Prior knowledge:
This protein is of the alpha/beta class. It has helices at about 20-25, 30-50, 70-85, 85-90, 110-120, 135-155, 165-170, 215-225, and strands at about 10-15, 55-60, 95-100, 130-135, 180-185, 205.
Amino acid sequence: MSEQNGLPSHIAIIMDGNGRWASNRGLARVRGHIEGVKSVREITEECARRHIEQLTLYAFSSENWSRPRFEVAILMRLLRRYLIRELKTIMNNNIRFTVIGRIEGLPEDVQKEIATEIELSKNNTGMILCLALNYGGRTEIVDAARRLAQKVQEGKLRPEDINEETLKENMYTAGMRDPDLLIRTGGEMRVSNFLLWEISYTELWVTPVYWPDFRKEQLEEALRDYAARERRYGGILQ
């Protein structure tokens, strides 16, 4: 496991700052999203090379639908293009692709590409690449509560048997380990409704660098900082 080498087993990233990166250069916001794809490719390949077990990227939140319709349409086109173009990267790096979120709310052509990528990479044995799409942390908890309520209604579960473990088993991230390290680019000091349940004991690292400029050097800085920390999970080191 990566933890044995001082590396996090699971890295989650809030990829923030695409729009500000573009605005600072007098460019349209969409240009920032296009450039951000290059960072996704480099960081994915670097994490796979370092044998990180899972990389989870906050790619499109449930709140992002409130953005201008034109920008949302461009983001969906870019997402579909990314899925098509990066399949080679995923297969060459033995990466298993998956997603979390309300995927049924995405355009049908995007859903089709997601299903194709999941199917083609399902037997890969390297790093898991998870995209959070149409995702919200509160929504995830609500959906898990609904699943539990349905099971109780059907007589498959008693209310007194509901605990942290049963809730976790009904989250989008069921079967995944919680992130060890959460990286946020763009300098904002908040988690933006991302993996609210899963990051209870996750180490946080924030950089002012906008996502399109985030490369291996910044990842290395985050990993060095993580390796120097002592994780206590609410306890006391002996």
